[in-house]
Amino acid sequence: MPIHVPGVRNRRNKVTATKRNVVAVLQLTAMVDMFTVLVVFLLQNYASTNQILPISDRVSLPKATSTAQLAPSLVVTLSKESLSFNGKDIVSFDEVRRNPEWVIEPLKEEVIESVTRLKSEKKKDLVVTRKEGGVKIFPYEKMTLQADENIDMLSIKKIMYTLTEAGIKEINFAVIQIKKYT
Question: Residue 49: how many CA atoms within 13 Å on its side-chain side?
Answer without folding.
Answer: 6
